[in-house]
Specification:
With about 400 residues, this protein is an alpha+beta fold. The protein has helices spanning about 10-25, 50-55, 60-65, 105-115, 165-170, 235-240, 245-255, 255-260, 305-325, 330-360, 365-375, 375-385, 395-400; strands at about 1-10, 30, 70-80, 80-85, 100, 120-125, 125-135, 135-145, 150-160, 175, 185-190, 205-210, 215-220, 225-230, 265, 270-275, 280, 285, 290. The longest helix is centred in the C-terminal third of the chain and has 31 residues, at about 330-360. It binds flavin-adenine dinucleotide.
């Protein structure tokens, strides 16, 4: 089997990159290890995504899926310090000034189906066991569609979109831990939990500071709510408590979330990621590149993961398309992609570091407080947190912090 490009992983990064390549006339194979898409964390989206849904030609399907509308974020940085940032305060920046809370099984499936419709060959239940190299150049993959049934496929360009599995950066020993952000995540779903609603019935993401970290509360379709805690690694270790105890204590310590979950039923086991953040200084190589979480992941506080993954997918598709046309698929040829995607990554990273400073200082002298009295800061903060990374000069925000 020979392809111009093989994309490994059918999350938002992989399916978007494969679709963009098919739209540019290239022959693409996408391999996804799961036979069908299932539960995944990463349910709160950003308004910047409309641009990508439009480009991918999937907007109508996303709108018809019945996901709850999300109109912003309710941040609670300390007891009594609540900040509502509504994305429709500055509606002119995005195609639509709202977005959705999604169950990822449905969202990822819609993007994958769209990829197939746009000409991508999609193979589900195909787990890649190995990237094949000739010298330092990636030439294809070995994968299994059933236990013991090893198959291979060759390509000119290999895209690693395997998310936190980090197929290539693990193999090449490029993945390393973030020196400062050592956070763990604990999360699950509840049926019948209370939630904060806007007057029109639309929803908000709730982010509440708690001892050792913060909690999220994301209203999903029907009566389902996603609740998670992100806690400092040292806090987790020092507590000596089980994940279940830690999570329950964090929920109970927040009067609002405790009340919302009081009569609710937990619908799945508690999931845990012991170490959320990881870095990687080099996303490309001869004949390959890494996109989305397969490149790096910083922190979920501002719900940027899916947006950055899909944005990077387009930058990568541009670089790959040019490489296939020119015949130069060297690491150097792919560097353009990496330079472009590192700009939004570094902007959101600075905001993340700022957030944890606010958490540490526990005072009200923070960017959210200042945004109440400075309309200019408020506009920039909301646009940035909506995913408008290229619409905002971060230094214009940083001077406040
Ligand atoms: C605690 C937490 C909370 C988060 N909350 C949010 C949020 O609210 N909003 C947001 O936007 N982002 C959030 N994120 C980030 C978000 O989940 C990711 O950034 C996003 O899913 C990245 O998309 P991706 O396509 O790169 O990877 P993924 O969505 O992980 O997709 C990777 C795909 O590759 C497949 N795969 C893996 N290995 C192989 C293999 N060997 N062969 C074939 N297929 C393979 C997997 O099955 C998977 O489908 C959160 C992350 C964490 C850790």
């Amino acid at each position: 089997m020979d392809y111009e490009t093989i994309v490994v992983g059918g999350g938002p990064a992989g399916s978007a990159c494969a679709t963009f390549l098919a739209q540019r006339g290239h022959r693409v194979l996408l391999l996804e290890k799961e036979p069908e898409m299932g539960f995944k964390v990463g349910e709160s989206l950003l308004p910047a995504l409309w641009e990508y849904w439009n480009k991918l030609g999937v907007t109508e399907k996303i709108e018809a899926a019945g996901f709850p509308i999300k109109r912003g974020v309710w941040f609670k940085t300390a007891p009594g310090a609540d900040y509502l940032l509504r994305t429709d305060e500055f509606p002119e920046y995005f195609i639509r000034p709202y977005t959705f809370h999604v169950d990822r099984a449905t969202y990822d499936r819609l993007l994958l189906e769209n990829a197939r419709e746009k000409g991508v060959e999609v193979l589900m239940g195909a787990a890649v066991s190995e990237a094949l190299f000739d010298g330092g150049r990636a030439t294809g993959v070995a994968f299994e569609t059933a236990p013991g049934e090893r198959r291979t496929a060759r390509c000119k360009v290999l895209v690693d979109a395997t998310g936190r599995s980090t197929l290539l950066s693990s193999r090449l020993s490029r993945r390393y831990s973030h020196p400062k952000l050592r956070k763990a995540a604990f999360y699950t779903h509840f049926d019948g939990a209370g939630r904060r609603l806007n007057e029109d019935g639309s929803t908000l993401t709730d982010i509440h500071a708690t001892e050792g970290g913060w909690l999220w509360c994301i209203p999903l379709r029907g009566d389902l709510t996603s609740i998670g805690a992100v806690l400092d690694g040292d806090f987790v270790k020092a507590s000596g408590r089980s994940p279940e105890d830690l999570f329950a204590a964090a929920v109970q310590a927040d009067p609002e979330i405790a009340a919302w979950t009081a009569g609710a039923r937990q619908t799945m086991q508690l999931h845990r990621i012991p170490s959320i953040s990881y870095l990687n200084d080099d996303f490309t190589g001869d004949g390959f590149l890494m996109i989305g979480d397969a490149s790096l992941f910083i922190d979920p506080i501002f719900s940027a993961g899916v947006t950055i993954a899909m944005r990077g997918a387009e930058f990568a598709a541009d670089a790959i398309s040019e490489a296939l046309r020119s015949g130069d698929s060297s690491a150097a040829a792919f560097k353009k992609y990496e330079q472009k995607i590192r700009v939004p990554i570094s902007k959101i990273t600075r905001m993340i570091v700022n957030w944890y400073e606010i958490m540490k200082r526990k005072d009200s002298g923070n960017i959210f407080e200042w945004s109440r009295s400075s309309p200019m800061l408020r506009e920039r903060l909301i646009v940035l947190l909506s995913g408008g990374y290229d619409k905002i000069d971060l230094d214009a925000i940083s001077k406040w912090s």
